[in-house]
Specification:
There is one protein chain. It contains 6 helices and no strands. It is mainly α and 139 residues long. The longest helix is centred in the N-terminal third of the chain and has 17 residues. Helices cover 65% and strands 0% of the residues. It comes from Streptomyces coacervatus. This is Tetratricopeptide repeat protein.
Length: 139
Amino acid sequence: MANGLGEDVPEWVAYFDAAEHAGARAVSVRDLAGLGRPRKQASTHFEDALKLRKPGFDRVRVMDRIGLAAALFDEGEAERGAAAAQQALDDAARVDSTLVASRLNSLLDAARPYETAAVHEVRTRAKDLAAARPTTIAA
């Protein structure tokens, strides 16, 4: 498969486009902030990923939306985080994925410091969705 520069790209990495790169940067920035590194805004990278995503990547788009909401909570933007989380939860309800369920737990952790009605509603919906989609399979 050609990459637009006339070079062949192996099939196993052909999916890695600008949207995937933005999503990977967002997760890296978020994770580094959790390790005590200087805080940068992961939310801008998640927003970039969402703008760049092509149709057909529903599960990844849901994970980007959940990541955006969690990043906004981590950045102190509780109201924007709650609004982004509601949209993410609407989308997550349509995707059955254990990976999405695990991301819901990250969202719950990020929302923990806030005690507003909007955030309480987010926590309730996220808990219900996570419970309906367990992250492990019973043996």
